[in-house]
């Protein structure tokens, strides 16, 4: 199958390139325009229906007509001179608020990405209502509801249009305004980090190009892989978005950007494997046509790429057993996109090699003569001369980083916190005068059994009991649904809804009090941001205990089949396990212990485990297979390890730096969760490449010798039984699993 695909693409390279280019551009445009139709902006929507907060969400939608995409923007209105609001001031504030609630806000469309006719139009008339006045009458709060996907830039543009109009209207009355809430915070944070993200993205692309230029000394070898991977990445994102819309399975907002980074990294890696082998074969066989060499190289390296890609696919497939929907969606999305990259690696990339031929490496003279031994050769000699010291040094480094796991906590906050944005400043001003949770209350929903009705009086004991809970600042009056079959009671907590204190309060005393004081003949559920993330915490803990061992077992099985050994896969899995612990510990040390964050983002352990184990295992497979190939030849085992490091380290180092740079670009994203994923994954890839694959695994192989391949190990006579001795033992090559 692999040989058939690579053979077809190299026989008809121009047709293959044309098809991929046209399809890639169309899918890229469609994906950009439709991505926000396919994403689920409300994290609570990913919870299983059995959780209490999920039941509260259903009650809110079914009994109170709450739109799951409705976003509350809290507008703070105060006098410009800082004096307390008078009764006349309040009347003017409420008049302006009423006018804003009657005026349609049109979404700007001049800066939309992709075909404008496919983009969602969020133009709407907002719902406005006075919320409350500060006890010292320093300000009044207006509640504004805007409906739409909070992650869509179009929704951000709509919010800014409303904000500018409201600010001007209140300023005409001598009032200053502030805006806060989830949508306001996300729009401000995105706007603040937009320039930085663009600059860092360009720097990341420039770094990849520079690395390729330094390695291959060729402009085509530097730019062609990046252009090809950009087309493939856009096509893969379009396939994922299309599959989401066709199946009705909503994507997490971070999934599209994560897919883009993953595909740039692994796509350039796969192209590098092809380029290294292509250059080696052109150097060794200068008389052969370049197209024939491209066909042969693509077939041989295609096996390695297929194995590497299927390892990632298999690892992320384990997320299908997760209960938390955000994990269950992420797995198939990444797996599908990697399969698209795999198909391109077996067709599009070989076609480019066939078309470019020897010109791929112009003006470099690398195709003439054999390269001289460099740092990789010296590193291999040093490792085999002191294998125990090298192994001990690696273990000490990984152990020191893993010490950061002490006291690690999970953070479920979704905003940037005290980020210095206008939204954060407004929230801080409100919190100084009112309970911290006033802009995002916890809510108790009470429904009557059997189609009965409720009376406000029957809920008074529950409200009184909730008001007595330590940490509940105040309790609003119950609000009945239109048919009086359900009631809503808002709780204003003293703690911000995104904090651990709020989650502990809601999941503990508040739910205990609700359970003890729910009126007979009714059922009650606690909802709101704090309750949702308390339940997510429970779901994540459950999923981590299941997914980790299943993923590890599946990857171990793949290694067992690829390496045909029992001991070598065990060594590799122990190594990547240590790398995972070290990377997560370093992340906790950097963000939580030193950075003052509440903890590491709750998705980080799982995403990090899958990426570090799956992607790091690719590099370990490359070095392990080369060690086995060299040990099959005559001579001492340690000399074989030294040769393996010499031949393999350049490819691993180059691919590791490129992949780390790709993930590292996420570290400057406006979203704190994405920052942590970018930092941690980049660190994990660097540790996998430079510590595990280049030092730890070779040092272990040097210590264990040929016994590492037990029970089927290479013979000391130079080859396995029934296997011909390898030709050209000294030729430079890039290992292929």
How many helices does DSSP assign?
Answer: 21
Task: Give the N-terminus to C-terminus distance in angstroms.
Answer: 17 Å
Rg, alpha carbons: 30 Å
Which band does the percent of strand residues land in?
A: 5-15%
* Record field, number of beta strands: 11
Q: What's the mean pLDDT score?
A: 83
> What is the percent of helical residues?
55-70%
Choose one word for the global shape.
elongated
Question: Helix/strand-derived class?
Answer: alpha+beta
Task: Give a short account of the largest sheet.
Answer: 5 strands, antiparallel
The low-confidence runs, each spanning 5 or more residues with pLDDT under 50, are 716-737
Notes on the protein architecture:
- With 737 residues, the chain is of the alpha+beta class.
- Helix content is 61%, strand content 8%.
- It contains 21 helices and eleven strands.
- The strands form three sheets. Strands 6, 7, 8, 9 and 10 form a five-stranded antiparallel beta sheet that branches. The chain has a four-stranded antiparallel beta sheet with strand order 2-3-1-4.
- Helix 2 packs across helix 7.
- The radius of gyration is 30 Å and the shape is elongated.
């Amino acid at each position: 199958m692999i040989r058939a695909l690579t053979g077809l693409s190299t026989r008809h390279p121009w047709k293959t390139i044309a098809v991929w280019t046209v399809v890639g551009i169309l899918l890229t445009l469609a994906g950009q325009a439709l991505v926000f139709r396919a994403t689920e902006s409300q994290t609570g929507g990913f919870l299983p229906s059995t959780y209490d907060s999920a039941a509260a969400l259903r009650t809110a939608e079914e009994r109170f007509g709450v739109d799951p995409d409705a976003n509350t923007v809290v507008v703070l209105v105060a006098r410009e001179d800082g004096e307390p609001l008078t009764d006349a001031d309040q009347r003017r504030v409420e008049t302006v608020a009423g006018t804003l609630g009657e005026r349609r806000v049109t979404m700007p469309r001049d800066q939309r990405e992709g075909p404008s006719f496919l983009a969602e139009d969020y133009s709407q008339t907002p719902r406005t209502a006075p919320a409350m006045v500060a006890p010292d009458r320093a300000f009044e709060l207006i509640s504004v509801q805007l409906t739409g996907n909070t992650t869509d830039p179009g929704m951000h543009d709509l919010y800014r249009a409303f904000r500018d109009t409201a600010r001007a209207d209140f300023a005409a009355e001598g009032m200053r305004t502030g805006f806060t809430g989830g949508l306001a915070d996300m729009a401000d944070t995105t706007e603040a980090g937009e320039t930085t993200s663009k600059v860092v993205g360009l720097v990341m692309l420039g770094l990849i190009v520079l690395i390729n230029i330094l390695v291959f000394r060729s402009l085509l070898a530097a730019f062609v892989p990046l252009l090809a991977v950009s087309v493939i990445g856009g096509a893969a994102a379009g396939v994922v978005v299309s599959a989401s819309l066709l199946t009705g399975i909503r994507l997490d907002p971070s999934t599209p950007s994560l897919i883009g980074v993953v595909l740039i990294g692994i796509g350039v890696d796969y192209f590098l494997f092809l380029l290294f082998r292509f250059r080696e074969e052109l150097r060794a066989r200068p008389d052969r046509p370049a197209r024939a060499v491209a066909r042969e190289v693509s077939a041989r390296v295609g096996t390695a790429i297929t194995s590497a890609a299927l390892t990632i696919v298999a690892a992320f497939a384990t997320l299908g057993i997760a209960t938390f929907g955000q994990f269950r969606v992420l797995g198939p999305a990444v797996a599908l996109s990697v399969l698209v990259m795999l198909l391109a690696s077996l067709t599009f990339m070989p076609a480019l090699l066939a078309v470019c031929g020897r010109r791929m490496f112009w003006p470099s003279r690398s195709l003439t003569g054999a390269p001289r031994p460099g740092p990789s050769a010296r590193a291999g000699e040093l490792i085999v001369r002191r294998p125990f010291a090298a192994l001990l040094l690696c273990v000490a480094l990984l152990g020191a980083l893993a010490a950061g796991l002490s006291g690690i906590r999970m953070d479920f906050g979704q905003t940037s916190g005290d980020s210095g944005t206008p939204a954060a400043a407004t929230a801080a001003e409100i919190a100084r005068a009112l309970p911290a949770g006033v802009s995002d209350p916890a809510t108790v929903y009470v429904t009557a059994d059997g189609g009965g009705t409720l009376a406000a009086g029957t809920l008074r004991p529950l409200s009184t009991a909730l008001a007595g809970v330590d940490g509940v600042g105040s309790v609003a009056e119950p609000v009945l649904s239109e048919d009086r079959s359900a009631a809503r009671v808002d709780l204003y907590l003293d703690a911000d809804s995104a904090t651990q204190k709020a989650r502990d309060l809601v999941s503990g005393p508040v739910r205990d009090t609700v359970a003890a004081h729910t009126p007979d003949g009714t059922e009650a559920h606690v909802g709101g941001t704090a309750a949702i993330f308390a339940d997510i915490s429970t779901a994540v803990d459950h999923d981590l205990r299941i997914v980790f061992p299943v993923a590890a077992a599946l990857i171990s099985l793949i290694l067992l089949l690829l390496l045909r050994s029992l001991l070598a896969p065990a060594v590799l899995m122990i190594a990547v396990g240590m790398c995972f612990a070290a990377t997560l510990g370093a992340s906790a040390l950097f963000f939580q212990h030193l950075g003052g964050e509440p903890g590491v983002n709750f998705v980080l352990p799982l995403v990090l485990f899958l990426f570090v184990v799956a992607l790091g295992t690719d590099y370990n497979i490359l070095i392990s297979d080369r060690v086995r190939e060299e040990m099959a030849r005559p001579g001492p085992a340690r000399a074989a390890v030294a040769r393996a490091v010499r031949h393999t380290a350049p490819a691993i180092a180059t691919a590791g730096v490129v992949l780390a740079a790709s993930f590292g670009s996420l570290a400057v994203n406006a979203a704190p969760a994405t920052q942590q994923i970018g930092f941690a994954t980049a660190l994990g890839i660097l540790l996998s490449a430079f510590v595990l694959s280049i030092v730890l695994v070779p040092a272990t192989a040097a210590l264990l010798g040929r016994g590492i391949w037990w029970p089927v190990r290479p013979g000391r006579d130079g080859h396995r039984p029934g296997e011909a001795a390898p030709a050209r033992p000294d030729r430079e090559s890039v290992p292929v699993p």
